[in-house]
């Protein structure tokens, strides 16, 4: 199963990079989301995947008696997911703002001709 | 001692709030600082005379070896007294000189800062501390040279000065760190113990080059001397203080200080003697062609600095004593001449020696100061300059064979030329007939003529009574450089010998030159024809070419297209990772440790990949957003499969909110446009696929590494025992790593503030374009 | 969105979802859940309400502007971080009552920290979304 996930991560990264290289700002944003998902899965996979054993101690016990999924990648990814929401919302509002100002979705329209004379 | 050094810094900060009260008569008060410090350092003379040293230690960044270590010995004391003594007079002099200037408070702020930095340089025992103060002197000098910041030439000169001294300082830092690293200590006193080791080390040559680069740029040695004449754009008190008596001597100080650590070898001696020799002859020669008073003084200062480097290079007991005497001699007469020139400029409005004459009739006390200083610079008997010059000849005569003749001739020529320059600056303006245009000139405030007069008279007093300073100040200073006792008291009269003959020849030569040569604009023009060959021009064009190249380079690399930058970064990352994968050996796959594949997982991954495909190729924005959310929900399912319920819940809710967000904002935007042509898309596709492949390979590599579960095990074992929680992920978030979470919610809050301010921001109509 | 069914449903869904979010928050220390998820669920509840009615109606329902929840949450989290200092223990030491409380279970400083996270998350999400939707209108 790990190999399938590895392929999935590769595809996520590749598509994320491809979208990042587009001129459209919305595509760039989607590329960021794809990359973020890929990174999350990568961290998750590298911590080792375990089926059906969440890192929650049994009701009666005080310690783990069985093997359990690694909690650290989970804590890291949880943080990353929430933060990425903040980034996405900021980026999307920025995009909107730029769109209202220059009335274009094209990144190249942001290059003013004066700047190139420097 | 720490307080003494930092006092200037503190006072310069105090000028910011309180400076405006000092513009009027109160300006005199600021001189209390250097005067107090001067008295403070005077009080150390008896201790130094007895051969004791004063050391003070305050930790600052001990882990990096940077400490406030100060060490006061003979050499430091000589410089400290010069800095605070000349400083006192300059502070007093500047008050009437810049009276009513808008930025007088700022001026005093820079000056105090400079004084503190300079004291730091000469007192610091830690080389890194020394470097920090060294750079501070460059920076404060930059502000002082460019003090008349309305003037373009002023700004340019200050930039050149900063560029040259700052660049040298940068190299010096490398040299000092290298020294500290090799000897195992950043303390100069402790380096003394490992001097043999340093001198025999293979990196000794590199250290010398770096240290010389720092010292030569700071002390304006050929071919870096050109910043000093430019620095004369500064107000005259600054020229007198920084560019003759103190800052330019920092390089000399450094060489003198490191003489016992690095000196005594051929690699030390020859560069110093040769560079010092070239500098002194070259600029002494230049000085007699100048017509601007300050320019003459600037070139003769460079010559004097060359002389000092030359003397330190010779490195015998006599030459080092001569160097320490000459430091004092030069500071006294040159500061005096500068201050005199300042008064002349201030009162007559010109500094052109071809126009100035006969000023003795209107500026009597000043003419006494100028003439006495010029005589001391000429080295007439009974002036302090005479003693200095005698010692210089004694030092050159101590060498043997060819060197003796070469060095003595060099010193003779330089001294002759310097004498002529000194007469031009100190005597020429006062003798002859007073032109009518200067008849109205009158004496300024007493502080302005008192300061140069005091310095000039001091030169005469010391010339008649050198015993006032030899044991107290000069011998201890030379002792520090030579590391052995020098028992040759300064003498007023040496008897009739070769040295006296040489002095006489110098005097005759210089006076003859002064009588024969009349400075004129024509002769200045004749020497300026060769400007194209001057180091200033060559280094200036190098700088211009470097600028052109960097502009072209920047235009290619920094062309303003985000995706081009990204493409370069990604390609570089691919190459780097691929190289590492390639050299890291074959990629092994052990199938037996992998978990089995089940059908529902494959279905989810299949949907995921289909959704990714739709996202990438979607013709409309809405399709892309919907497909993106499908990706998110599928990943959420994967988290469910692999025992991460918390993640699944978070991913699910966040994904929902993201869709809402996208729909809210993107609803009104136009449809997707395809900007790129087919070729670009294929190129990007190849790069992106390569990156995905590399990441996948890296992931496989990492999967084959055993997982170190120590930290996870700690959290798992202690979640309930220490934190009374059973959901380990949540315990990590709110307890074990609570501080991280705290910062995370702060970041979230900042994002919210950013969004709100972006949206509430209303642009003015003018900014809409 | 003008759907009577959804509109009516959201009136009932809002309190249920809110209750659920608090449940998730409280059980976070023992079972999957916690401040982040709880806060997000609560935020979704309000967003749903604002979709079916409109943003102003939701804001009226909230009585206070969601942006004021952010400093409240931050302060609560910071307070629970520094609270151990007042009883002479290092910052961020977990403090717990000895006996469990009915319904809520064990109460300790970590719970208040989580509550702070919960409030910040609601505040941030609602501030962002409501500002955007008001701007679009």
The count of strands of chain B amounts to: 2
SSE order of chain A, one letter for each helix or strand: HHH
At CATH level 3, the topology of chain A is: Helix Hairpins
The oligomeric state of the chains shown is heterotrimer
Average pLDDT of chain A works out at 82
CATH class of chain A: Mainly Alpha
Percent of residues of chain B in beta strands? under 5%
Uncertain runs of chain B with pLDDT below 50, 5 residues or more?
none
Describe the sheet with the most strands of chain B: 2 strands, antiparallel
Profile the largest sheet of chain A: none
Number of domains of chain A: 1
Distance between the termini of chain A: 54 Å
Q: Give the count of structural domains of chain B.
A: 4
Please describe what this structure looks like.
The complex is a heterotrimer of chains A (118), B (769) and C (137). With 118 residues, chain A is mostly helical. Chain A is elongated and about 60 Å long. Chain A starts with a helix and ends in a 16-residue tail after the last helix. The C terminus of chain A is likely disordered. Chain B is an all-alpha fold and 769 residues long. Chain B has four domains: 214 residues, no CATH class; 256 residues, no CATH class; 73 residues, no CATH class; 45 residues. In chain B, 72% of the residues lie in helices and 2% in strands. Chain B contains 32 helices and two strands. In chain B, strand 1 and strand 2 form a beta hairpin. The radius of gyration of chain B is 36 Å and the shape is elongated. The longest helix of chain C has 28 residues. Chain C has one domain. Chain C starts with a helix and ends with a helix. Chain C is mainly α and 137 residues long. Chains A and B meet through helix 1, helix 2 and helix 3 of A and helix 25, helix 26, helix 27, helix 28 and helix 29 of B. Chain B: This is Na(+)/H(+) antiporter subunit A. Chain B: Keywords: Antiport, Cell membrane, Ion transport, Membrane, Transmembrane, Transmembrane helix, Transport.
């Amino acid at each position: 199963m790990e190999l399938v996930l590895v392929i999935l991560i590769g595809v996520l990264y590749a598509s994320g990079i491809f979208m990042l290289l587009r001129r459209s700002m919305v595509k760039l944003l989607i590329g960021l989301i794809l990359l973020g998902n890929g990174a999350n899965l990568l961290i998750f996979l590298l911590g080792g995947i375990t089926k059906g054993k969440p890192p929650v101690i049994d009701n009666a016990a005080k310690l783990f008696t069985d093997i359990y999924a690694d909690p650290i990648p989970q804590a890291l990814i949880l943080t990353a997911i929430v933060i990425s929401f903040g980034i996405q919302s900021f980026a999307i509002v920025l995009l909107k703002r730029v769109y209202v100002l220059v009335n274009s979705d094209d990144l190249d329209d942001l290059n003013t001709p004066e700047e190139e004379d420097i | 001692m720490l307080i003494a050094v930092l006092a200037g810094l503190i006072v310069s900060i105090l000028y910011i709030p309180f400076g405006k009260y000092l513009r009027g008569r109160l300006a005199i008060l600021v001189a209390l600082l250097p005067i107090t410090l001067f008295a403070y350092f005077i009080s150390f003379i008896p201790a130094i005379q007895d051969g004791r040293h004063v050391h003070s230690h305050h930790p600052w960044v001990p882990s990096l070896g940077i400490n406030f270590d100060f060490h006061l010995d003979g050499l430091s004391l000589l410089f400290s007294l010069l800095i605070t003594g000349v400083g006192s007079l300059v502070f007093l002099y500047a008050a009437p000189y810049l009276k009513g200037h808008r930025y007088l408070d700022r001026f005093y702020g820079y000056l105090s800062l400079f004084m503190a930095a300079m004291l730091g340089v000469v007192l610091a025992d830690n080389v890194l501390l020394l470097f920090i103060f060294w750079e501070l002197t460059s920076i404060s000098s930059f502000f002082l040279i460019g003090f008349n910041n309305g003037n373009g030439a002023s700004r340019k000169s200050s930039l050149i000065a900063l560029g040259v001294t700052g660049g040298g300082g940068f190299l010096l830092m490398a040299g000092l760190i290298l020294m500290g690293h090799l000897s195992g200590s950043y303390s100069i006193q402790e380096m003394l113990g490992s001097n043999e080791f340093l001198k025999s080390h293979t990196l000794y040559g590199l250290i010398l080059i770096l240290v010389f680069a720092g010292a030569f740029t700071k002390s304006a040695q050929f071919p870096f001397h050109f910043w000093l004449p430019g620095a004369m754009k500064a107000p005259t008190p600054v020229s007198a203080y920084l560019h003759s008596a103190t800052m330019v001597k920092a390089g000399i100080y450094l060489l003198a200080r490191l003489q016992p650590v690095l000196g005594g070898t051929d690699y030390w001696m020859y560069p110093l003697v040769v560079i010092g020799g070239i500098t002194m002859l070259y600029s002494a020669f230049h000085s007699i062609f100048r017509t601007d008073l300050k320019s003459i003084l600037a070139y003769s200062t460079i010559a004097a600095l060359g002389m000092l480097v030359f003397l330190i290079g010779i490195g015998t007991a006599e030459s080092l004593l001569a160097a320490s005497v000459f430091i004092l001699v030069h500071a006294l007469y040159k500061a005096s001449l500068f201050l005199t020139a300042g008064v002349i400029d201030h009162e007559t409005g010109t500094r052109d020696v071809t126009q100035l004459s006969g000023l003795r009739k209107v500026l009597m006390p000043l003419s006494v100061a100028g003439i006495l200083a010029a005589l001391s610079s000429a080295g007439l008997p009974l002036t302090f300059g005479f003693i200095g010059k005698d010692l210089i000849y004694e030092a050159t005569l101590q060498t043997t064979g060819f060197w003796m003749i070469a060095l003595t001739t060099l010193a003779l020529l330089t001294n002759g030329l310097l004498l002529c320059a000194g007469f031009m600056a100190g005597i020429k303006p006062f003798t002859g007939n007073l032109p009518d245009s200067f008849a109205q000139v009158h004496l300024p405030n007493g502080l302005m003529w008192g300061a140069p007069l005091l310095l000039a008279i001091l030169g005469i007093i010391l010339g008649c009574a050198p015993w006032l300073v030899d044991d107290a100040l000069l011998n201890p200073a030379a002792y520090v450089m030579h590391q052995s006792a020098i028992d040759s008291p300064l003498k007023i009269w040496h008897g009739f010998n070769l040295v006296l003959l040489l002095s006489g020849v110098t005097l005759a030569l210089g006076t003859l030159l002064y009588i024969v040569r009349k400075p004129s604009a024509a002769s200045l023009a004749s020497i300026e024809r060769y400007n194209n060959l001057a180091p200033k021009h060559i280094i200036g064009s190098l700088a211009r070419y470097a600028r052109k190249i960097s502009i072209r380079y920047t235009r290619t690399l920094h062309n303003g297209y985000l995706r081009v930058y990204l493409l370069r970064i990604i390609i570089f990352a691919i190459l780097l990772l691929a190289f590492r994968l390639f050299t890291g050996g074959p990629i092994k796959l052990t199938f037996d440790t992998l978990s089995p594949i089940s059908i529902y997982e494959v279905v989810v991954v299949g949907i995921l990949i289909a959704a990714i495909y739709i996202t990438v190729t979607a013709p409309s924005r809405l399709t892309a957003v919907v497909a993106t959310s499908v990706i998110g929900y599928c990943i959420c399912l994967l988290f469910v499969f692999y025992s991460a319920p918390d993640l699944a819940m978070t991913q699910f809710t966040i994904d929902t909110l993201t869709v809402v967000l996208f729909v809210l904002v993107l609803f009104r935007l136009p449809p997707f446009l395809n900007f790129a042509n087919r070729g670009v898309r294929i190129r990007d596709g190849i790069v992106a696929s390569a990156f995905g492949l590399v990441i996948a390979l890296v992931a496989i590599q990492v999967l084959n590494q055993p997982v170190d579960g120590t930290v996870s095990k700690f959290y798992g074992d202690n979640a309930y025992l220490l934190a009374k929680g059973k959901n380990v992920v949540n315990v990590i978030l709110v307890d074990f790593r609570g501080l991280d979470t705290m910062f995370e919610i702060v970041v979230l809050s900042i994002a919210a503030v950013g969004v709100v301010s972006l949206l509430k921001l209303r642009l003015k109509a003018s900014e809409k374009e | 969105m003008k759907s009577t069914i959804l509109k009516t449903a959201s009136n009932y869904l809002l309190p249920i979802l809110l209750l659920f979010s608090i449940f998730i928050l409280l059980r976070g220390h023992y079972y999957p859940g916690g401040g982040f998820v709880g806060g997000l669920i609560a935020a979704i509840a309000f967003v749903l309400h604002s979709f079916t009615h409109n943003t102003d109606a939701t804001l009226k329902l909230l009585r206070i502007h969601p942006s004021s929840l952010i400093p409240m949450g931050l302060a609560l989290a910071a307070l629970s971080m520094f609270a151990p200092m007042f009883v002479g223990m290092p910052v961020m030491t977990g403090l717990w009552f000895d006996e469990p409380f009915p319904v809520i279970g064990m109460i300790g400083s970590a719970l208040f920290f989580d509550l702070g996270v919960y409030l910040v998350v609601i505040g941030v999400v609602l501030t962002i979304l409501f500002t955007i939707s008001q701007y679009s209108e």
